[in-house]
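Many introductory courses stop at the sequence. We go one step further.
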Amino acid sequence: MGFFDKIKAGLTKTRDALSSSLGSVFSGFSEIDDDFYDELEESLILADLGVDTAVKTVESLKKTVRERHLKTPEEAKEAMKDILTEMLNVGDTELNLSTHPAVILVIGVNGVGKTTTIGKIAKQLTDAGKKVLLVAGDTFRAAAADQLEIWAGRSGADIVRQHEGADPAAVVYDGIQAARARDVDVILIDTAGRLHNKQNLMNELNKISRIVNRELPEAAKEVLLVLDGTTGQNGLIQAKQFKEIAGVTAIALTKLDGTAKGGIVIAVADALQIPVKFIGVGEQAEDLMPFRARDFVEALI
């Protein structure tokens, strides 16, 4: 199955939901009028683009229709694809792995598929010939390091871990020293998803970031936020909080194959102006796919 086909298959639930609403908008109107725009806006909100992004999309479309003198809903649909693609193009969608080693700090609440996402990225990187080290920085959840160890075995990556309850920053420090000794290309760091309050989480992530910046000041660094696509607008709220806490540089949206809320990808990119770099559309390592805005929009609509 090709890249586009896989995305298309993974977004079936979202596309079916959109088709039933958007399809009736584009086929049910013979001309572009106020009723057409109202119906379109409602359909986009139902697809979990969110009110702000849906309104912005429709306003942009109105402007484009006027400027290009578009006449038919079909022409408007093609114009809307361009608008949505532009909304998604908010930065480089490739991971920055330009230094040796490069660091990817992976954050997100428990249950979003964070550890699995790390494992899948590790598998893709080792398959591409990179030497990868996993650092089990989530020491608060008993199964986190065990789960990461399983992925290390599957992917052929090394792993550094300590006992449950260890200081995460100390584990990260050990991981960086091990990466130097083993001549590693990429360090992937797992972090705790939930401490008992936001301040504690902020302190923990800041501490880890300080260790990375002190030990590897020249390294290319990504702060990858993993969001569960099935949570829709709640995912957007999480993303805003983590952006404040941790200076997010990239987003991975998981479990999009299990939801009709795939429009959240557009809402997140537009609201935060942070590039989506991965989307998850299945269980296998290759089902965590590099994000391409135009392919995503074409598969969605």
